[in-house]
Design goal:
Blueprint lengths: L1 H22 L34 H4 L1 E8 L5 H9 L6 E5 L4 E4 L6 E8 L5 E4 L10 E6 L3 E6 L2 H7 L1 E6 L17
Antiparallel strand pairs: 1-2, 1-8, 2-3, 3-4, 4-5, 5-6, 6-7, 7-8
Length: 184
């Protein structure tokens, strides 16, 4: 009796699905349509296909920098003067295997950063190979002496502002006196 009841329930369930399929209430399981020639579309270009040439090379920014930041464009001249006076101790950017080694945000650890660009000419510095990531900084300007970087992530940019770095030892930067070694 239980076996015939199970067969009847199964038959009713199959009939219900069949009727639902005829009524159009079941989702379609059709294959994708690629157009008239029945060939799949070409694969999408990956991030590396859209990369451009960075406006600066890692070796150009390696060195010692005075650093300050600003939130409003009208504060940039005052911030540049503050950065010129911030060479003791300097913010140091070193060369790394893939680009430069420098601080990211919210971590005291030095990170390996890549200098990368998009096809439309925007240059970024940040971890990973893809330009414009949330942890990247966009290069706003660089003249060899002053480097201006803006955080891509709006929340990080709101906390840290636009970074302005002035090369230590550049014209107009204060000289940092070398510490004398004690005589032994």
């Amino acid at each position: 009796m239980a076996s015939s009841m199970l067969r009847l329930s199964t038959a009713a369930l199959i009939s219900a699905f069949a009727l639902a399929g005829c009524g159009g209430t079941m989702p379609s399981l059709s294959l994708p349509s690629w157009g008239n020639n029945d060939e799949p579309p070409p694969p999408q270009a990956g991030p590396s296909a859209t990369l451009g040439t960075p406006s600066l090379a890692p070796d150009q920014i390696v060195g010692r920098w005075g650093i300050a930041s600003f939130h409003r464009p009208e504060d940039q001249p005052r911030t540049e003067a503050a950065a010129r006076n911030a060479c003791s101790p300097p913010y140091v950017i070193n060369r790394s295997a893939t680009g430069v080694a420098m601080l990211g945000h919210d971590s005291p650890a030095i990170q390996d950063m890549t200098v990368k660009a998009t096809a439309d000419g925007h240059t970024y510095i940040g971890p990973g190979p893809d330009p414009g990531g949330a942890d990247d900084r966009e290069v706003v300007s660089f003249d060899g002496r002053v480097l201006i970087l803006k955080w891509v992530d709006p929340e990080v940019a709101g906390r840290y502002g636009t970074m302005l770095l002035v090369r230590c030892g550049a014209p107009g930067a204060p000289k940092v006196a070398a510490k004398k070694k004690p005589k032994t």
